[in-house]
Amino acid sequence: MSALPHARSVRTTPEGLLWEPSERWVRGRKGDVTVVDSRHPLLVWEPALPVPTYAFPREEVREDLLRPARDPRTGTHTGSRIFYDLEVDGEVVENAAWTFPADDLAGHIAFEWFLRSGRGLDHWYEEEEEIFIHPRDPHKRVDALPSSRHVQVEIDGTVVADTRRPVLLFETGLPVRYYVPLEDVRLDLLVPTDHSTGCPYKGTAEYWSWRGDADVPANLVWSYPDPLPAVATVTGLLAFYNEVVDITVDGERVERPVTPFSKTLSTS
User: CA 111, CA 36: separation in Å to the nearest integer?
Assistant: First the structure.
């Protein structure tokens, strides 16, 4: 007899927070100092944020390194009023940690991730794998699938990519991204930049901008030269922000989506 699937264990607080227990062993470090070592973390989603964070039982946190914040950043996290500065080896990181007001999360402390907010703990591990930017969402899926669709990409009316061997990346909550081999891209129309971003599902991306005079944002093309194993099929391929370029798939123009990136792209 096959086992019935477990019901999702996500719970809601009156403050609008979502949370659920995680069975992952999570550690957070500031430099070489382990500040968090937890086998009982909670994943917490705030209403205004699309990605989760971890909250940890106090007994699994180095509270001796925390001090009441001198200048609390109230308003930065849902309903939170208690913030802590972190002091490690004489260095003070302001507002590195906080507590949520929900009764369900009493006795837990959350931390900023340096690569996401510019402060907080700078190295995070789930089991023995280092993770970046934010925890991976267990309810999110990322699939990179080789395809034979005919994909064309235009910028300001100029065809900059034309391929029949793309890799389509499907990521929960985002539009399909079309990754194109270098040989099928007009690289002479692009210029590499020093911009980079990190993703806990895909790795570290490098970027290109458009060489022409079109009114398009910088860094609208990216690639993962050394992606995480789960999406290895996109290695070295180029992708374009659907939000600001025109993409045609098998002769059908793809509607430009509105995503969490749209505002950033419009002001860059």
Answer: 9
